[in-house]
Amino acid sequence: MTNMKRIGKLIAGVTISLSVILSGNIILAPQFAKAAAASSNTVANSILTDGQQFLGVPYHFGAKSGQTDRFDCSSFTQYIYKLNGIDIPRSSKEQSTIGTYVSKDELKPGDLVFFYSPIHHVGIYMGNGKVIHTYGKPGVTITDMDTGWWSDHYTTARRVIPNNGQAVTESADKQSAAKSGKAPSNSAQDNQADSADDLDD
């Protein structure tokens, strides 16, 4: 009889332990999701902050990777993402194939947004319909992409920021972002977003 009581207590103890473990998992899952979202938001905010430091920097078709005294659209996005530990391809066409597809109504700050068909322009979504990018005379600028020409030529978007942010580490380039890069290349275009053709370095 004593052994039966001991067995009953043991079963009860195991049941209680399992209940605590399972309930703990239920609680931890949302907490992990919140932490991942917060980390992703931090990376996005850093990308946008870095991008805005280059407002007004001239546009130059075919600017070299890493060059910071002038950019074309895809060298700009590539450089800003690299500052935040995310390596992306050089051309806008290639950039449009990485990460995951995002519909326009689900855009989040830090997503890459693409224009033209076939794609040959890219920018970084800021939220509230704004995009930071570079083209023509404005150079690096902020534009409302939900109205006028940009709205008519919007094509697609991609999300490349890791959901948990763990893959993102600050690169050495970020410490010298204010320094100028390589010497300018020889060709330029005004009032026109750059073509993806001939942009690969």
Briefly characterize the structure.
Residues 185-194 have a biased composition (Low complexity). The chain has a domain at 39-176: Alpha-Beta Complex (endopeptidase fold (from Nostoc punctiforme)), CATH 3.90.1720.10.
What is the CATH third-level topology name of one domain? endopeptidase fold (from Nostoc punctiforme)
Kindly report the oligomeric state of this protein: single chain
Q: Give unreliable regions as ranges.
A: 14-29, 164-172, 177-201
SS element count, helices: 4
Order of helices and strands: HHHEEEEEHE
Q: What would you give as the CATH superfamily of one domain?
A: endopeptidase domain like (from Nostoc punctiforme)
Quote the distance from N terminus to C terminus: 82 Å
Name the CATH architecture of one domain: Alpha-Beta Complex
- SSE-based structural type: alpha+beta
Shape descriptor reads: globular
- The residue-averaged pLDDT reads 76
Family: Belongs to the peptidase C40 family.
Organism: Paenibacillus mendelii
Protein name: C40 family peptidase
Pfam family, one: NLPC_P60
Characterise this structure.
The protein is an alpha+beta fold and 201 residues long. It has a domain at 39-176: endopeptidase fold (from Nostoc punctiforme) (Alpha-Beta Complex). The chain has 4 helices and 6 strands. It has helices spanning 2-52, 73-83, 92-95, 148-153; strands at 100-101, 112-115, 121-127, 130-135, 139-144, 154-159. A 6-stranded antiparallel sheet has the order 1-6-2-3-4-5. A hairpin with a 3-residue loop joins β4 (130-135) and β5 (139-144). α1 (2-52) packs across α2 (73-83). The longest helix is centred in the first third of the chain and has 51 residues, at 2-52. The chain starts with a helix and ends in a 42-residue tail after the last strand. Mean pLDDT is 76; it is low at 14-29, 164-172 and 177-201.
